[in-house]
Write a structure and sequence with these properties.
- The protein has about 240 residues and is mainly beta.
- About 10% of the residues lie in helices and about 50% in strands.
- The chain contains one helix and twelve strands; from the N terminus they run H-E-E-E-E-E-E-E-E-E-E-E-E.
- The strands form two sheets. Strands 1, 3, 4, 5, 8, 9, 10, 11 and 12 form a nine-stranded antiparallel sheet that branches. A three-stranded antiparallel sheet has the order 2-6-7, with no helix packed on it.
Length: about 240
């Protein structure tokens, strides 16, 4: 998780510079904190990968219902980090001076992939799960006291993700060796992270970094060479966000 460490250090340094560089009266921040309800928009950088739990006999060659061997035995199944981005909308509600609730729907463009390595190198393949996802997180934000133009916070909550425009019958007529891996079109996740509010004259900027892990298994299980070796598939995501309010 080197990327997580680097993004966290960058966020802390950015917030620290804002904290110690106060040479003028605190900025108004567009009056965002003066209202119980306020709105904004967001941009997100996303990196994600699958955690793979394999079946006990996952290395075995795949045999179809007629007894034909479709693939050689497996050597490994892995999931590299995939990058993407998202754009979204923000609605924030102030509960107390230090506690807020926010909902920030976003449209997520990020592909994920699985790499299959077989004993026969010619069968090695990468299965990409292409999807556009609508994320709907409901988060609670616990804030510190404001120091000049800076305020740190912790954030956590749950998120529901819904795939948009997915056709799970895309490989209905394909040979077994050409089948694709499919995910559930809807699934839940939990999220936790840190961030800081930085106040400018006409708006408030909130850089934030958070981790997200899906609940349960998101794989659609099918009797085919690429789904059968997998017992459980969960999605792990790191998101760096900029909220403008």
């Amino acid at each position: 998780m080197n990327k997580t460490r680097y993004l966290l250090i960058a966020l802390l340094l950015f917030c620290g510079n804002c904290l110690f560089a106060q040479s003028s009266p605190p900025a108004w921040g567009g009056g965002a904190d003066l209202n119980d309800l306020s709105f904004g928009f967001s941009f997100h950088y996303i990196t994600s990968y699958y955690k793979i739990d394999k079946t006990p006999g996952w290395r075995n060659p795949y045999i179809d219902n007629a007894g034909n061997q479709i693939t050689d035995s497996l050597k490994s199944i892995s999931s590299p980090n995939g990058q993407g981005f998202a754009v979204g909308f923000l609605a924030r509600y102030r509960i107390t001076e230090y506690l807020e609730a926010k909902i920030s729907p976003s449209l997520n463009f990020a592909d994920r992939s699985l790499i299959y390595i077989f004993n026969t190198p010619a069968q090695n393949t990468i299965k990409t799960v292409q999807s556009t996802v609508m994320d709907i997180p409901l988060l609670v934000k616990l804030k510190s006291d404001r120091l000049g133009d800076f305020r740190a916070y912790l954030v956590g909550g749950v998120k529901y993700s819904l795939a948009v425009g997915v056709n799970n019958k895309i490989d209905a007529g394909a040979a077994l060796i050409d089948k694709v891996v499919k995910n559930n079109t809807g699934y839940g996740s939990y999220e936790a992270g840190i961030g800081c509010d930085i106040y400018f004259e006409f708006f408030k900027l909130s850089p934030e970094i958070k981790l997200s892990n899906s609940f349960g298994d998101i794989l659609i299980h099918e009797n085919q060479p690429y789904s059968s070796p997998i017992q459980k598939l969960t999605l792990h995501t790191l998101m760096f966000s900029l909220y403008f309010e």
